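in:
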């Protein structure tokens, strides 16, 4: 299938769809634009969780039990760190640490995050382009009932337990999309933009908070199709449904469609939510119902094919 496609992704859910796409779209025709607002410095290391999840997944080196981190991992460094009284709340496996060491050193040398990601991708044998949304620093700040928390403090250390009141992306307003991201969105051969079933508020909104990216997305002349991250009123991964409830939103795929309505053309509902189809279509969005639960590689490939076929058929709406 020779289709030129850009996918927008966060971590695990986005990586699953990206893996499916990598099996049906030629490597030089696929680019995955990845959230970087989860990036942070820990123990002196530059850590990019969503980028690494994409890289490990596409390299067939991801931990199959968690969907993140490396397979066949060892924890000797964490054990020694705990013995020395260091911080171990953010678990870094020995193999994973090697990635962060390389990234930290290259960034210190003056390399852009996009360049470093390309080098890591090549070293891991990944053909698909994995593009940080920006080379500028963006940081998710979660406003909670216990105060404002950096994302990893909220998500990992506090296990997403504090009640969310608002989410902001520090630095996003002054950030610019990388030249590589703009080139992917402006490629004359581009045929579809797919939004993976990632958390809309924590993974996709940071991309849109970058003004140049949001503008390029609006100006793209191809259909934008989103896959719902909510199935049967619940999220398959992470705190999406919990956050929706705390923000006063109904925990349903319809609420996600409303959130995306200003800029998407098509929306893929899981078949269990087919009764929501008329309500989503009333928003001016074309709808397709399909299985969206990606438990196996075949599921991921099938959803990728479905999304691409649907994007081709639904067309670009006048918005």
């Amino acid at each position: 299938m020779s289709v030129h496609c850009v996918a927008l992704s966060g971590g695990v859910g986005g990586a699953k769809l990206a893996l499916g796409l990598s099996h049906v779209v030629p490597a030089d025709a696929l680019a995955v634009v990845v959230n970087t607002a989860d990036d942070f410095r820990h123990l002196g290391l530059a850590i990019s969780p969503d980028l690494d999840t994409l890289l490990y997944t596409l390299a067939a080196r991801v931990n199959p039990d968690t969907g993140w981190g490396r397979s066949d991992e060892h924890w000797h460094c964490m054990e020694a760190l705990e013995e020395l009284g260091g911080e171990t709340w953010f678990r870094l496996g020995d193999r994973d640490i090697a990635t962060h060491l390389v990234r930290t050193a290259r960034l210190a040398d003056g390399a852009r995050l996009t360049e470093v990601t390309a080098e890591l991708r090549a070293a891991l044998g990944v053909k698909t382009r994995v593009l940080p949304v920006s080379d500028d620093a963006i940081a998710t700040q979660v406003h909670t009932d216990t105060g404002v928390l950096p994302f990893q403090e909220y998500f990992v250390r506090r296990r997403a337990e504090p009640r969310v009141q608002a989410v902001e992306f520090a630095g996003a307003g002054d950030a610019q999309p990388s030249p590589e991201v703009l080139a992917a969105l402006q490629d004359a051969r581009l045929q579809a933009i797919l939004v993976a079933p990632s958390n809309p508020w924590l993974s996709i909104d940071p991309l849109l908070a970058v003004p140049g990216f949001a503008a390029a997305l609006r100006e793209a002349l191809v259909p934008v199709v989103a896959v719902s991250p909510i199935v049967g009123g619940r999220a398959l991964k992470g705190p999406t449904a919990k956050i929706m409830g705390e923000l006063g939103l109904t925990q349903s795929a319809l609420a996600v469609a409303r959130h995306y309505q200003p800029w998407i053309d098509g929306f893929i509902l899981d078949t269990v939510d087919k009764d929501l189809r008329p309500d989503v279509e009333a928003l001016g969005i074309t709808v397709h119902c399909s299985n969206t639960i990606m438990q196996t590689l075949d599921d991921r490939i099938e959803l990728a094919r479905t999304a691409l076929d649907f994007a081709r058929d639904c067309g670009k709406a006048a918005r």
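note: The mean pLDDT is 95.
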